[in-house]
Amino acid sequence: SGVHRIRIIPCGCADAPKGEERYTHYLAMGLFPASLQNIKTAFTFGVLDDFRMDNLECKTAGLNYWHKVVRITSNEFPKSVPDRYRELLRTSRLWRNIKYRKWNGFGHRNSRQPGPGSLALFCAACPQPNVNLPAGWDKDPVRWKYMRGFMFDGNFTAEQLKMKNPEDDVHLTDGDAFFTTRKPYYDHLKVALEIREQRTCHDFTAVHKANMLKQHLLHTGIGAAACPRHGYFVPHSVVDFHKGERHVSGPDFNI
């Protein structure tokens, strides 16, 4: 229903959460605070879910969604609505991460933390031991029918520009979903040997650009392994490309 100014007084009882733990007061009321200290802005669970669905299905960008909220608040005087676009982006990222953890059985107990690929689901139709294979499948004389295939491909239009302030880029996950864990992957790139191929045709530029570095880009694309039959991405298999179509960047590490 738009942006509202309301007064919230946290509980002052002796056993009530204090300090940074006061955010639990807001969560109990269905409000997700945009910060933990000196809380001034909070979003309802409903608006965060609505933005997530709009972004997922309608491809609505955060700025466009915020403009919609502004119009709902005051269609006549949109400039009078406080700008909370930055807070919406930050809070929606946290909300989405919490949703992923909840859906995959994490977050209910602090001691249980997600591991590599734990926040992503693999193809339900592909053969998986202890999931959809019969007991004793490995002793079947024709066990080749349980073989699982993989394919690897890259997207070289998914470029990422270098950030002016890279320290502001806070990662909420590290290898917990589809992307690989950063440190093992970067360690692999440091020691992996690259065989430079020679062009067999003057117009075949993929080989020539395989090791070309673009100074303004942090990543030149992404690559991922997928199930060739159903098109599902493999958890913990997506990698960043730092140059061109180098084989060591993706397939070598995933294999």
From TrEMBL:
Residues 1-75 form the CxC2-like cysteine cluster KDZ transposase-associated domain. It comes from Piloderma croceum (strain F 1598). Pfam families: CxC2 (PF18803), KDZ (PF18758). It comes from the Eukaryota. InterPro entries: CxC2_KDZ-assoc (IPR041457), KDZ (IPR040521). This is CxC2-like cysteine cluster KDZ transposase-associated domain-containing protein.
